[in-house]
Structures are given as C-alpha cells and as structure tokens.
C-alpha cells in the first residue's frame, strides 16, 4: 500500500483528541482514508494503544461497511507484514472480522438482542421482510379503520369527509401510512403527535403569533426587501441617463418605496402586511427610440415584469385576514387530532401484530434502541452509560445522512457525544426523502469551533482538497455553487470553508467544463416535447463520438492515453424515465452503451431471479420471490399453471399451495425437490459455493448464452458471484445477512459499478443518487431542463418535522377547499428544502467528474431562455431569484452568465457534428453619462473614419472543406459562399417515394455504408449486398438508399490494395469530424489578421506507425483514364483535411488518396 502523506487539515482530523470532532469532508477529499488512518493511530500509537474492538464504526450502508472493513483489514495486514515481529498487529488483524463496523441498524439489532429483557422484547426476533411487513400494515390499517368507523367520533368523520374523502378509503389509507412513515424519524413519535394536537388549538390572536405565520411573514419580508434592493440598483443605473431617467426613475422609485414599506409592515403583523399590499407599479413614462442604452432599458422592464409576477404570487398568499385563518385552523383541529390518533392506533396495532410473530422492522430497531438508551428528556440511561464505557470512540461516516432518532442513539453511546468522531459533507446530503436531516450536521458545522481546542470543547475540521477532480472541474464547481448556493437555497453559504481546492496536478491541458443547450426546433417555450430527451441524447452521442474519434486524451498516472467510451458516464436525475431513451439513442448513434435495465444491476432479470431463488432457499414462504422464480426461464411455469397452484390452497401462502399441487403435478414436485436439494446444500456450504452450484446445476450460464445480450447476462451473474465472495471476506456469514446486504445496497442506490471500469468498454448510464461515492474520467450530466418535481407539495396534508401538519381547509357549505395558514407555511418550507436538495444533487453530479465535464439540456429556444434569465445573472445570485426557476438548467445558465463563462462555458448545440456554438456573456459596461458630462462629437473625424476590417465583411464566418472545391474552380472569386444550411432544400416527404435518388443522395448513402461496414467482410458482391441490407434492417440506411449502394463497387474497393491497407491498419478513423479556427488568408488572400471556422468530415484516416493517410471516397461516374485529372479538383479539399488531421493528432500526413468507387481507381495526390 502506498505511503499516505496527509495534508495539514487531514493530519489534524487524524490526530485531534479530547472531544467531539466534526470533519466536513468535501467531495474527493479522502475522508475514508482519514477515518482509516485515525483508527490506525488509535490502535498502534500512544502509551496505551486501543484495540479495534474498543471502537464502534457506523456507516449508512452495508456495502460501505464491507468496503471499510476490507480497507482496515488491508491496512493492518500491510503493517503486520512490514513488522512481522509485532504480536499486537497480528492480533488486531485477526480481530477485524469481529470488529463492530456496520450500519446503525446492525448495531441496534445486536444491542437489542443483548438487552432484550430491558427492551421488553424476545431476543430471538427476526427482521420482517418488506412483503411480510406490507401485509401486516394492510391488516392493521383495516382493523383500525373498521374500529374508527364503528366509533364514528366527530373528528374522524370530519377527517373522512374532508382531507381523506374519496370514493373509497384509499386516500385516507395513504395519508395514514405516509404520516406514519414520516414520524419514524422522531425518537418519540407519540410526543411529537401530542405537540401537534396542541398547536392546532391555537389561542393566538394574530397569525403572526403562530409558527406558521412567522414562517410566512419572515419569508415575505425577505423577498420584499430583496426586490426593493433590485429596484434601488436599477434606479441608480437609469438615473445616469437623461431620457431613461425621466421615463423610468419615478415609477421605479415609487415601486422600491412600496416594497420597503410592505416589508416594514410585515414586522407589525399579518393584517398590517395585507394593508400594505398590493405593491405599487405606476405606469412608465414614454421612451422613444429605445433610450440611450436600449439593453439597460429592456433589462429594467424585464426585472419590473418579474417583480410584478412575484408580487402577485405573494399577494395571493395574504388574501385572507388573520382572524379567518385562525378560525380555519381551529375548525380543522378536530380532523387533525383524529388523524394523529388514527396514526397512533395504527402504530399500536401494527406493533402488536409484529410482536406476536417476534418480528421487528428497521424503524422498530431504531425506536426500541432509542428508548433503551435515553430517558424521556433525552438524557442517557444507565444502559447507555454502560454501553458507552466499551468504546474509546464512536466513528460515524456519512454523518450528513443521519435522522433525529439515529443521532440520539449515536450520542447516547458516545458518552453524550464526548467520544464522537463524525465525518461527512452536507453538500452531498441527498436522502431527505429517506428521513435524513441535514440540519443536524449544519448546526454543528455552524456552531463548533475550529480545531484544535481545549479538551471537552466540540471542534470541527474542514477537508477542502479534492484528490479526484482536475483544476478545471474544481473551478467550475466553485464558480457554479459560489453563484447559486446560500442559506436560502442549499441551506448553507458556499464560502471559503466550502470551496474545493484542487489537490492533484494532472498532465496536459483540457477545455473547461461546458453547458450545452440543445434547441428543439418548432417547440413552444413551455411545451414538454415527447422527443426532448431523444434530441438531447442524440446530440450528446455526437459529442461523445467526436471526443473518442478525435483522439481526446485522459490521464493514466503521469501519462496520457486515448479516451475510450468506457471512461464516460451519463448521470440523470430520473434514470427510470430518461435512461431507456438515452440507451436507445446512444446505441442508434453508434456509441456503445452498457446493456442494462433502467434500474441497473439489480433489475436485470437474470440477477433478480437468482436473488429471488436465494431468498426462497433461505425462507420459501415468500410469495413474491417464489412466484418470480417459478415464472422464470429456469423453471418455466405459465400463468395458467400458477393460477391452478393458487387454487389448491386458498387460505395459505403460495408455498403451501405449491406443496399441495406437487401431489398431482410432476412439474411442481420436481421444483420442490430441486429447492430442497439446494436448501440442504446451503446448510453446509459457503455462500459463493452455493451460488456457483445454482449456476451449474440449473444451467444458468448456458441459458443466458442463448438469450439476447448473452455476454452481458453472463457477466452480471459472474458479478453477483464475486459480490458473494467479497461479502464473505468481510467476516460476515450467512445467506440471510447477504440478502440484507444486497437489499441495503439497492435501497441506497449503491449498485455495483458495472460493467467494465477500465475505460475500454461502454458508456455507463445511472442516476445521480447511484453515482454518489463513484468517480469517472468524463461525465455527461443530462436532462437538466427537466422541471423540478413538486408533486410532494400537492398532498391533502403536508408534513414537516418542525412546522408539523399542513392540511387544506374544506368549506362544505360552499363546496370549496383552500390552503390553511399551516399548509402555506409547511409548503413554503418544504419547497425550499426540496429545491435545496436538488441543488445538492447537482453538486454530487458535478463532483463525480475527474477530468472532463459536460452538461446538456434541451429547450425550445436556448437564446430566448438565456435572454430571459440574463437579468438575474450575477456572481452571487440571491435565493429569491433562483427559487421560482423551474429546472437545474435554468440555474446553470444563470451561473454561466453570471460568472462570465470563465469556468463553465455556455454553448448552443445543433451542429450535426456535435460542435456547439459558444455563447459569450455580454459585458456590462458602465453607464455612459449624458447632459453636462457629454463629450463633444468631432463629426469630421466621425465621417472620415473607415472600418479597419472592411474586407472581413465579405468573408464567411464558417467554411466547410467541401466548399474549397468551388474556390478552386475558375470562377471561384465570384462564387457566393452561402452558409451550408442555405444550400440544401428538403423535398416534401410526399414526393420522396416517387422519384429516384439524386447523385448527391446516392453518394451520401455510399458514404454511410462505408462508415459502418467492415471491409474485411466484403469478400464477394453477394456478401457486400447482404452487409448493406443488414444496415438497412438496423435503420442505418433506408431501403431506397440501400438499393442505390453499388455493392459490387464496395467489394471491388475492399479487395483492392487500398482496401486491404485499410483493413490492416492499426487504427482507422471513419467519418472523422473536425472544427478548427484557421487564418482566413489561407483561402482568401488579403484577409490578413482575420480568422474563420473551418469544418469538415474526413471520410477515412489511417493511423500507421510512421504517419497518417487521408482517404476520400468519390462516387463520380467517370472513365478510369479520367481519374487522375478529376482528382486534381479535390486537391485543395484534401490538403485542408491533411492540415486539420495533422493539427489534431500531431502526426505528419504522409499520403492523400482520392478513391473513385465507380471505376475502382485510387489516385494519390
């Protein structure tokens, strides 16, 4: 193992002792290495080194625990090998297998078994699988609802008729289950529910005296003051101009005053703010000719319109007077009390059913452990003090993802936090939907003192160096989040403590990360186009091909190597929706992409069925797993056969029905015999051996080989086998524990990285959640224009841990419902938290990239969107400007514009070759003063002035290599160089089938065929024809295009000396695109000092050991003897190709060849 040389901050995190320590570890900062090294120092150094069994190490996934145990074991083994005489190191190395390294749930489970008597449970409890737990919840809910309807308490009837109303009880059932699930993050859910009941019986005389009113008034005041500041700034800018100042300043000044006045009234109470609304927006004066600075005038009007919209939104929330809002709250209280009671009754019934079966679920583990370890006031129990004495230190990884109850447990067993080491990164807290609470980390992050500190003082250390990403990626991350992240959005300031520092030096220089907006022609601005994902994915695919085919380099150690498709990962916010489309489009565009299901490794059918088989080997009475195995290709039971089995035993589980069916069915009996044999085998075998026995005895590998994507299926099964082997090396044993480990991995989105990770295979596509903890040389973040999902804010009752319940109010007499005061406040807070989590997701995605980062989005009119967002763009954008935005893409565009595109370039896509057009953010000039300060104009000098680059006005901004042929013609000087798009007109589709292909279209078809075909396989005209037909079947060519391709000519080319040379070449680039800036005088004498963009596509480029060879295919119909003269027409074109290839690859071009396919002649120029 390489010697670890910690940075000063890492050294501090490793060596600091004497109190609670929080380590804020940025992405790629080596937190796991720090945790491991800290443990090693405890074990091996000091006057009284500790043993590894004196530590409790908590991770938040079983997979992470296994990896950490493996790292610790490797480190101890390496140290023992370096010091073979050390008995202590050998002893500690042997103890790793039984060290307490695991999840919070594994710790709670062991604790409860040890103290079962004190916890009031049986020590032989089992963990309920999800199928069993779901069924128990259903039965419990039925029992509780029947009792509630029988009792018909008025509050319950109000609940059932209002927020729980529907054609049946499903809405009410969902409400109870949702609230019950969210209460599990609290250490004592019953106490929280009691506090909520009291809140609704509010005796407040003003809405401002309630927590909900305070939330809304503070939020409103912040927004009003921010807009007032915006208008003050606009007034200062406009006042410097005579016309614009006269037309706009009076109105803008009055609006700013109105905004400040309303903010001041918000501090006086609810109705005081209502009286200050609406905000005044007086008419603007007349401004003729756009004013002195039309751009500033337009920006000012755009900000005024944005403020009007924000003001209307705000006014809508303050429509009702305080008295009515409080009446509505009191009127809703009986229904909310009934809801909380119903949840409590459900929890009691569900618990009763679990205890009767000696079952616990994961929430039970936490709550029972919390009650065992803490008193009602939160202080530690005697049991907690007893457990705490075992540990020299409690170490917690990923601390940003703990919940309230988990934090209580951790503090209780760490001597009330005095022996607690926590490491995490709150910027990567992306599991709030699983009850993680980032505010627990944030409170310590903000309040603890910087280490070192005297003993007993809580302290913090910041790890900011990224040992993952190169400087260009680090700069982009800092630019984006310095612009976007704040306490208002992201829940923390992205200040010097949070900024990343590049910790590694990478060889070479690469372009800065890029944000590419891909246009959707013909779409409306707000339209959600069904082909939006497809258009974006296709453009990204062309960008990927261009990277690989142009020989882009990435680092490997201190050297560089060519980028491969396997180095690229696509990260998506919603992989289940977008993933399949990206896979299909990338494959269609010729980009190899990992074969897999939208959900990844665990959803692959061959993996899922083996896991289900392992589950029923462990416990055959699991209906879902059993039925999935029976229906699989391994056993082939039909739906009719499964129905017949079910009918054999209507009351029992499916295994009982199958056993009954086996008495009359040979197929059922054979399955049960196989299952019994495997269960017997499992009792005496290691886990990996059992899995291999399944593969061998059931012919799994052979079956996969006979299916589509056979190689990928076999590889996934081998990966599962390797997972079992690695699991056993952690010291854990047992099929049940292995299944729990896999389930934990899947629930956390931490699926095995698959397939190959060596950069040589296929592009990987995964969710941002799944990518956490991983890194990739090149990252594409896609689908960023997808609108944020705010559906969680539309439920009938919203829930927040601090603000409580947020119901709607139902006015039965008028037949309407509207939000209560509580609902508005809860929705306001939840929306901020939701968007903060979206921002942190973007941080996770961007920090996965090691060397290159591309972000794509598809939108109707990128330029229009950029123009609309530009007024809000600045170096530090306030949360108030960002919260109304609808997508990550809008945030990113604002950041790119606000930071001037220095660290994240902004481009508009659309070029067929994947070369985006860069957008340069406009500079903001100082206002030009008028009036007395105006500078006199020298009209003689003005009219005598001549534009110094007048010759450039006639130059094209872009020139394609094929246009060079026209420049070489005798009348080239008078030829008009039109943009490429203006030269081609699409014929109406209705006419296509009725005509023959033009010569140009036949040439295009032939070039497409040569792009995809392997010349070595075209040994006969018949073989060539079959190969072309296969391209048509694959959608690469239309049937008419395929028919127009001269198969005999392709065969003749393949068998020619040039064709054989291409086949034998070490590397061949086909349809190689380029786009380079070059001196205009190269093609236009007299255009000194000007540049133009030269674009083209090289048909074929051979990379041979001593240089490159350019080959250009021509389909001209000419006689063989005319070929040399005709080739001269293309000399300028091939010379340009050679110049471009040499510039890009650094290789000398040793030959330029034109090959005429029709006569079969090769001419070297």
What are the defining features of this structure?
alpha/beta; 46 helices; globular; Rossmann fold; 7 domains; 1165 residues; 49% helix; seven-stranded mixed β-sheet
Topology (elements, then pairings):
Elements: H1 8-15, E1 21-25, H2 31-44, E2 55-59, H3 62-82, H4 87-95, E3 100-103, H5 104-114, H6 116-119, E4 126-127, H7 130-151, H8 154-161, H9 170-183, H10 189-200, H11 211-238, H12 242-266, H13 270-276, H14 294-317, H15 322-356, E5 359-360, H16 362-373, H17 382-388, E6 393-396, H18 404-412, E7 420-424, H19 438-447, E8 449-450, E9 459-463, E10 465-466, H20 471-484, E11 501-502, E12 514-519, H21 532-549, E13 553-556, E14 559-562, E15 568-572, H22 575-588, H23 605-618, H24 623-631, H25 639-648, H26 654-661, H27 666-683, H28 687-698, H29 700-705, H30 710-729, H31 735-747, E16 764-767, H32 768-771, E17 776-782, E18 797-800, E19 804-811, E20 816-819, H33 821-846, E21 849-859, H34 862-869, H35 879-882, H36 888-898, E22 905-908, E23 917-919, H37 939-944, E24 958-960, H38 964-968, H39 989-992, H40 999-1012, H41 1021-1033, H42 1039-1044, H43 1047-1055, H44 1057-1064, E25 1067-1079, E26 1091-1104, E27 1107-1114, H45 1123-1127, H46 1131-1145, E28 1149-1156, E29 1161-1164
Parallel strand pairs: 1-7, 1-9, 2-3, 2-6, 4-5, 6-7, 8-9, 10-11, 12-21, 12-22, 15-16, 15-17, 17-21, 24-26, 27-28
Antiparallel strand pairs: 13-14, 18-19, 19-20, 22-23, 25-26, 26-27, 28-29
Tell me about this structure:
With 1165 residues, this protein is α/β, with parallel strands linked by helices. It has seven domains: 222 residues, P-loop containing nucleotide triphosphate hydrolases (Rossmann fold), CATH 3.40.50; 74 residues, no CATH class; 112 residues; 200 residues, P-loop containing nucleotide triphosphate hydrolases (Rossmann fold); 152 residues, PCRA, domain 4 (Orthogonal Bundle), CATH 1.10.486; 134 residues, Lambda Exonuclease, Chain A (Alpha-Beta Complex), CATH 3.90.320.10; 55 residues, no CATH class. The chain contains 46 helices and 29 strands. The strands form seven sheets. The chain has a seven-stranded parallel β-sheet with strand order 3-2-6-7-1-9-8, with helices on both faces. A seven-stranded mixed β-sheet has the order 16-15-17-21-12-22-23, with helices on both faces. Strand 19 and strand 20 form a beta hairpin. About 6% of the residues have low confidence.
């Amino acid at each position: 193992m390489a010697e670890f040389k910690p940075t000063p901050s890492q050294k501090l995190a490793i060596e600091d002792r004497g109190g609670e320590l929080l380590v804020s570890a940025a992405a790629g900062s080596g937190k796991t290495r720090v945790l491991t090294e800290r443990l090693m120092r405890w074990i091996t150094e000091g006057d009284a080194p500790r043993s590894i069994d004196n530590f409790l190490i908590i991770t938040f996934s079983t997979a992470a625990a296994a990896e950490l145990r493996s790292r610790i074991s490797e480190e101890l083994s390496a140290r023992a090998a370096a010091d073979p005489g050390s008995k202590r190191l050998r002893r500690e190395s042997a103890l790793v297998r039984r060290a307490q390294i695991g999840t919070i749930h594994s710790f709670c489970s062991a604790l409860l078994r040890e103290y079962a008597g004190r916890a009031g449970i049986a020590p032989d409890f089992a963990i309920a699988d999800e199928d069993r737990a779901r069924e128990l919840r259903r039965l419990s809910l039925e029992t509780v609802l029947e009792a509630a309807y029988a009792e018909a308490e008025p509050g319950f009837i109000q609940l059932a008729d209002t927020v729980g109303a529907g054609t049946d009880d499903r809405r009410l059932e969902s409400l109870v289950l949702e609230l019950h699930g969210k209460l599990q993050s609290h250490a004592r859910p019953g106490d929280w529910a009691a506090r909520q009941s009291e809140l609704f019986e509010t005796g407040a005389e003003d809405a401002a005296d309630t927590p909900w009113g305070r939330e809304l008034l503070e939020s409103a005041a912040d927004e009003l003051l921010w807009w007032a500041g915006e208008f003050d700034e606009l007034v200062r800018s406009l006042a410097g101009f005579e016309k614009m100042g006269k037309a706009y300043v009076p109105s803008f000044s009055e609006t700013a005053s109105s905004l400040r006045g309303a903010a001041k009234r918000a501090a006086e109470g609810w109705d005081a703010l209502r009286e200050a609304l609406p905000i005044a927006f007086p008419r603007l004066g007349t401004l003729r000719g756009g004013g002195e600075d039309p751009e500033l005038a337009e920006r000012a009007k755009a900000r005024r319109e944005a403020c009007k919209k924000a003001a209307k939104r705000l006014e809508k929330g303050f429509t009702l007077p305080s008295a009515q809002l409080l009446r509505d709250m009191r009127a809703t209280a009986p229904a909310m009390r009934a809801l909380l009671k119903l949840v409590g009754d459900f929890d009691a019934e569900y618990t009763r059913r679990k205890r009767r079966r000696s079952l616990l679920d994961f929430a039970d583990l936490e709550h029972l452990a919390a009650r065992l370890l803490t008193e009602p006031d939160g202080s530690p129990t005697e049991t907690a003090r007893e457990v705490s004495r075992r540990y020299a230190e409690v170490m917690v990884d990923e601390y940003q993802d703990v919940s309230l109850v988990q934090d209580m447990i951790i503090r209780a067993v760490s001597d009330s936090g005095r022996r607690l080491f926590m490491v995490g990164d709150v910027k990567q807290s992306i599991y709030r939907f699983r009850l993680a609470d980032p505010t627990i980390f944030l409170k310590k992050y903000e309040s603890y003192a910087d280490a070192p500190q005297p003993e007993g003082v809580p302290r913090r250390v910041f790890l900011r160096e990224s040992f993952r990403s190169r400087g260009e990626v680090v700069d982009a991350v800092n630019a984006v989040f310095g612009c976007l992240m704040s306490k208002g959005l992201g829940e923390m300031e992205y200040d010097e403590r949070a900024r990343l520092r590049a910790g590694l030096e990478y060889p070479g220089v690469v372009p800065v990360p890029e944000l590419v907006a891909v246009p959707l022609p013909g779409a409306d601005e707000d339209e959600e186009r069904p082909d939006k994902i497809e258009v974006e994915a296709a453009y990204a695919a062309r960008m990927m091909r261009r990277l690989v085919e142009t020989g882009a380099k990435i680092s490997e150690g201190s050297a560089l190597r060519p980028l491969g498709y396997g180095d690229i990962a696509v990260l998506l916010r919603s992989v289940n929706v977008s993933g399949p489309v990206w896979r299909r489009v990338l494959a269609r565009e010729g980009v190899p992409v990992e074969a897999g299901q939208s959900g990844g490794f665990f959803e692959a059918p061959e993996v899922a069925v083996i896991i289900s088989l392992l589950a029923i080997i462990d416990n055959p009475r699991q209906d879902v797993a059993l039925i999935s195995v029976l229906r699989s290709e391994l056993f082939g039971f039909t739906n009719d056969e499964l129905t017949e089995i079910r009918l054999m035993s209507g009351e029992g589980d499916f295994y009982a029905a199958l056993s009954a069916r086996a008495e009359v069915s040979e197929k059922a009996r054979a399955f049960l015999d196989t299952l019994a044999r495997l269960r017997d085998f499992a009792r005496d075998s290691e886990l990996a051996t059992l899995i291999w026995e399944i593969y061998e005895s059931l012919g799994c590998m052979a079956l996969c080989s006979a299916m589509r994507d056979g190689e990928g299926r076999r590889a996934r099964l081998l990966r599962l086998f390797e997972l079992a082997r690695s699991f056993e090396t952690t010291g854990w044993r047992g099929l049940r524990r292995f299944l729990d480990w896999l389930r934990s991995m899947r629930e956390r989105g931490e699926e095995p990285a698959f397939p190959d990770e060596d950069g040589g295979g296929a592009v990987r596509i995964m969710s941002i959640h799944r990518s956490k903890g991983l890194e990739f040389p090149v990252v594409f973040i896609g689908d960023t224009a997808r609108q944020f999902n705010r559906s969680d804010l539309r439920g009938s009752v919203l829930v927040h841990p601090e603000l409580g319940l947020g119901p709607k109010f139902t006015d039965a007499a008028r037949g309407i419902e509207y939000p209560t005061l509580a609902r508005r406040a809860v929705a306001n807070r939840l929306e901020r938290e939701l968007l903060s989590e979206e921002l942190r997701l973007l941080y996770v995605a961007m920090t996965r990239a090691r060397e290159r980062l591309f972000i794509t989005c598809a939108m109707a009119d990128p330029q229009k969107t950029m123009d609309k967002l530009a007024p809000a763009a600045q170096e530090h954008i306030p949360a108030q400007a960002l919260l109304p935005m609808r997508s990550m893409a809008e945030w990113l565009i604002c950041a790119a514009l606000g930071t001037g595109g220095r660290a994240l370039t902004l481009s508009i896509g659309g070029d067929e070759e994947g070369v985006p057009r860069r957008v340069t953010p406009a500079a903001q000039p100082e206002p030009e003063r008028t009036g007395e300060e105006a500078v006199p104009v020298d009209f003689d000098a003005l009219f005598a002035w001549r534009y110094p680059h007048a010759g450039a006005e006639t130059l094209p901004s872009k020139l394609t290599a094929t246009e060079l042929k026209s420049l070489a013609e005798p009348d080239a000087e008078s030829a008009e160089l039109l943009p490429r798009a203006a030269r081609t007109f699409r014929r109406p589709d209705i006419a296509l089938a009725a005509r023959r292909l033009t010569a140009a279209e036949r040439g295009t078809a032939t070039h497409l065929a040569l792009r995809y075909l392997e010349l070595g396989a075209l040994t006969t005209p018949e073989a060539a024809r079959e190969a072309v037909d296969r391209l048509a079947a694959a959608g690469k060519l239309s049937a008419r295009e395929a028919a127009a391709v001269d198969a005999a000519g392709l065969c003749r080319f393949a068998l020619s000396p040039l064709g054989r040379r291409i086949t034998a070449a070490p590397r061949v680039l086909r349809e190689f695109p380029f786009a380079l800036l070059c001196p205009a005088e190269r093609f236009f004498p007299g255009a000194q000092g000007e540049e133009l963009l030269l674009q083209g596509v090289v048909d074929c480029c051979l990379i041979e050991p001593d240089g490159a060879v350019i080959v250009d295919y021509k389909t001209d119909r000419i006689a063989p003897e005319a070929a040399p003269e005709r080739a001269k027409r293309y000399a300028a074109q091939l010379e340009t190709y050679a110049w471009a290839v040499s510039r890009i690859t650094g290789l000398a071009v040793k030959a330029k060849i034109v090959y005429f396919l029709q006569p079969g002649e090769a001419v070297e120029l």
